[in-house]
Structures are given as C-alpha cells and as structure tokens.
Amino acid sequence: EIQVFCDQPTVELSPHLYGLFFEDINYAADGGLYAELVQNRSFEYYSLTNNRRGQGLHPLYAWNTIQRSGGHAETQVTDAEPLNPNNRNYVELQITKSGEVGVSNKGYDGIHLDQGARYNVSLYARAKDWSGDSSLTIRLESKDGSDCGSVRLQGVDGDWKKLEGIITANQSTDEASLLVTTSGEGTLHLDMVSLFPQNTFKGRRNGLRKDLVLALKELNPKFFRFPGGCIAHGSGYDNRYNWKDSVGDIAQRKPNWNLWGYHQSYGLGFFEYFQLCEDLEMAPLPVIPIGVGCGFRGNDFVPIDELGPHIQDALDLIEFANGPTTSLWGQLRAEMGHPKPFNLEFVCLGNEEHDTPDMRQRFPLFSKAIREAYPEIKIIGTSGLGAGIPIYDLMTKDNVYSSDEHYYMPPNWFLKNEGRFDDFDRNKPLIFVGEYAAHDHGRKNTLFSAISEAVFLNGVERNADMVDMTCYAPLFGRKGHCQWNPDLIYFDKRNVVRTANYYVQQLYGQNKGDVFLNNEVAMKTIGRPSTVSGQIGIGSWNTTIEVEKVTVNGRDVSPTNWKVLSGTYSDKDNHYYQTDKTATPAMSLGREVIDGETVSIEIRARKTGGSEGFLVRFGADAKGNGGYWWN
Ligand code: AHR
C-alpha cells in the first residue's frame, strides 16, 4: 500500500490555458472550414505575380464555359458595371447561338455530394439584349456527365438580381460540377455563384464545415486566435487583413489575396469568427495589425502621421464586438443577426513583429488608444519569433497583459525547454505561447514530435502562474494544398485526420486541472517485503532533488552526506540508477522483516531543478528490486 500526500496546490492554471490558433494557410478558410463549395465564386482571382504558387490563378480559375445543343457564347470577366464597388468582377457571356449555354465550376478538387442532402444555391444575374427564356438552370453534374439534381431560377432581367434555390442531390459523388445554363440568347452577367450544403455546423447559412468544427470542439479549446499569423499584418501593409472588409453582406465584402499563394473571399470573416467563438465557448483573440507589415515580407509601415485611421480600425473592431446596437459598428453586428455583444475581452496587437524602430514607435500608440477608450480590454502584445523574445522589454515597459512568443523548433528543443519558464520574472507580463509546433525531420507529424510537445506542456503547467495561454500552429492543412507542415488537423473534402499532435492537444485540453500540485510530496509506504531497503534516484536532464527527511519505522535515518542529489541521465539500469550508494543502507531496516510486521518508510523530498521526477524504490533486495517505486 502506498499513500501519497501532496501538501498544497502551488499554481492555479489559467482557465484559458489551451486554445486554438486559426490562420487561412493551407486552404484552411476557403476550401476548408468555410463550407462554400464553389471556388472563385465572384471571379476575383488573379495571378499573384509575386508568389510562385499563385501564378496560375486568373479570374476564370475553376470555371469552364458550357456550349451544348448547338449553343455558342464568348466568355470574359469584366468589371464594367460591377455588382458593387467592393465586388467588381463578374462573368459576361455573349450568347450568339442559343442552346444549353453557360458556365460550370469544379469547386475545390470537385464538388462532393451526398445523396438526399439539400444544398442552397444562390447567384446574382443580369441580362441585356435578351431574347428567349429568361430562367436559369442550376444543375449539379457528376464527372461522367450524369445529372445529380437541379433547380430552375426565374426572373433574370436588366438589373442585378439575387436568385436563390435548393437542390437535393439524387446521388453521392466526389467530383461533381455546378452548371449555370440558359437556353436564351443575348448577354448574361453572373456574379457570386454560391453552393452551400444545408448541413453546416448548427445548420447556419454562410456556415462552416460541420466535421471540421467538431474536430475543434473535441479539443475543448478555451480561446481562438485569428485571423493570423502572417496574413494578419500582410505581405506589404496593403495586404493586411482589414476586418471591415470581412463583415456585412457577403456580396459586399472586399476580397483580398493571400500571401500563402491563393485568395481570400472573406466569406468567413470576423462576424463568423466571433460566432464560432461563442458556439464553442472560446474567448475571441483577434490579431490587430499595428501599422507594420509582416517583417518576413518587406516590413513596410504606415507613416506615423497617417496612423489615425488604422488605430480607429482597432477601436471600431472593439465596438463591433461589444458596442451597443445604437453605435455604428454595434448596429452592423445587430443587422448581421447578433444584437447581443460578443463579450470581447482580449485583443492581440501585432503578430510576431520584428524588433525595428518602426514597430517600437507604433505599438504604444495602439495600446494607449485602446486603453483610453476601452480600459477593460486586455492587451496581448508580441515578443517576436523564437526563444530570444527580443521585444519582451517593450512589452514589459508597456505593461501588456501578456506577450506572445512563437517557436517552431525541433523536438529536442521542446524537451530541453520543459523548464523554460521556471526562471521567468514573475513581475513581467504573462506569456502567451501563440504559435508553436515541434518540427521533426522532414517536418512530419511524428509521435516523437507530439511527445516532445507534451513534455513542454508539462513545464507550461508547472509555470501556469507565468504562462496564460498556449496554442499549436498551424491548425489545418488541406490535403494536396499545404504550404506549411506539420499541421494539427489534415482534411480533404470528406475526411478529417487528427494527428498525434492533435491527440496531445486534446489530452491536455480535455484534462486541464484547476491547479498544478507542488512537486513536494510526503510519501508514506506501508508494506511487508522480507527485507526493507531502498534507494532514491533521479531522472534525466540534470534533475536535482533535495532529501529532507527519511524515517524507517519512525527511526530517523535522514541523510547527512547525500542531501542534495544531482546528476544526468544514464542509460544504465533501464534508465533507472542508484544515485548515491551510501544512501542505500541508511534506508534499510537492517534486519529481516518479521512475518506480519508492518514497516513504514517515510521520505520527504522535493525536486529543485531539471525536468524529470525522482524515483524511490524499495523492497526485497539491497537495490530495492522487487519492491515498489514511485516517480
Ligand atoms: O503558422 C504559420 C506562420 O508562422 C504564421 O503565419 C506566422 O505567424 C509564423 O511565422
């Protein structure tokens, strides 16, 4: 029988210690979490000349012209009379010979359909110089040309008009296309051609992929950092994520290119992010750019005397989340269907900023304005990339709530850094580990990388008075479309693959304690081996323990010459070894145990350094073999 007494809790664990970091990288948003099945729905793609991956993109990417039954059309994308100033491009079909004429979209690697499932279809259409039937046929067609379901939409005329319908799939397939066709003749304009499954998370329109949201929910995350990452401050400041472009009617949102080599429709925007946070009970952590572009991509910045509108964007975001419905941005939130505030508590200023004079000048201007307008908002700053935490001094001076550190390092770094926070100054800002992942050989998700992350999290929990939040990065990777590995969750159009690293996050997220118990244990062991002797051992990585007191049957055999044990890892003896031979006899009873006799050994010790526990072994022989051990 072994009884272990842990005297007292030492560290309270933050209620939001484990959360998520979401960035639209690896097609995590469009073609990922966002359930839209049509790719390039508003014809806004263009070639990203500065990006190797995005060079093949163009306004008709993912689209084809349909000319069947003798029909003929010239197809082009134009912005001559746009749907609105934000959504400029649309497709124009000049149909000179009627038949079955229109366009088709192949989605993301083909559109997958489930037999019996219902799909919402919508588009904007306008016709000029028209003759013949003014209805449009929206049809889902499998790769082999068979019909998977269709709907006819009436009422196209000379002005932009939104048409909507529902299609029930009559078969399951993985590679369907969506066809929009007409039998009329003249000029047809189409924009915002959209197809959503009705079976989104919570059945929301403009919703999210249910299977992916459930994979997030199973992590039990307590916060959500979004929208990046590098895309938050952009490749050149003009490319930053402007949250105002991502809210309101989806047809009015202003798309942006994505520095990871594709495009962002912003259909999944700040409203949807806040709503997801509410649904999964996560604290929203929006990342606000601070007038400085991504340091890895040019590091351009807004002149100080032009910063005003950018600071105002930050303040308006807080109003959008929390403001009354009578306020400008609170009213928009209400119009979008959420009159209640989203209870925003934190904002992150900057992402992984480089330590430059421009950054140092601009950060305090944002934090000051936010504190003045919203003193209740907690400001999370940024310390930069890697273990050097170059900007922590600025964060300390600014007295931020916490400071965001990022590490993408080999597994051994995580093992060695289990004790990283042991010596952090408790008078400085808390730490937010806002991006991390162990990068093993080949940047694959390995069991070793996952275990090293777990070891690191043990150190985080021991230092939870210093480390307030942590999140793995990146979160999602779409099979065949990854710019970055490893990721936590991989998916294709139907499947979700949880990695070993995911299960570590889940283990810690689902089993987070309220407190971290002190390593100081009082251990009382009662047993009846034939002899009693024992030893105390230490684990790897320079563990040091201090032994205060040992009693055997109440007899004080407390050590004199071996009070402090220290050493390094040894491969001998199955990773367990005797640390101080002189200690062994002192712990023994010194005679055979009488049958029926109870022998009680009490050891009081504590670990004072290193990353591993200590071991106590006692039992049948002089080395303690055959007995019990406690780690
Ligand atoms: O997570 C991928 C990228 O890594 C993020 O966009 C950036 O913050 C970091 O450098």
Put the structure in a nutshell.
This protein is an alpha+beta fold and 631 residues long.
Walkthrough of the structure:
By secondary structure, the protein is α+β, with helices and mostly antiparallel strands. It has 3 domains: 20-30 and 200-516, Glycosidases (TIM Barrel); 53-197, Jelly Rolls, CATH 2.60.120.260; 519-630, no CATH class. It is built from 12 helices and 35 strands. The protein has an 8-stranded parallel beta sheet. Strands 1, 28, 30, 31, 32 and 33 form a 6-stranded antiparallel beta sheet that branches. Strands 4, 7, 8, 10, 11 and 13 form a 6-stranded antiparallel beta sheet that branches. α7 links the parallel β20 (378-385) and β21. α4 (308-322) crosses α5 (328-335) and α9 (447-462) runs parallel beside α10. The chain is elongated, with a radius of gyration of 31 Å. It starts with a strand and ends with a strand. Mean pLDDT is 87; it is low at 523-530, 561-585 and 620-631. Residues 23, 25, 228-230, 351-352, 406, 435, 473-474, 484 line the site of alpha-L-arabinofuranose.
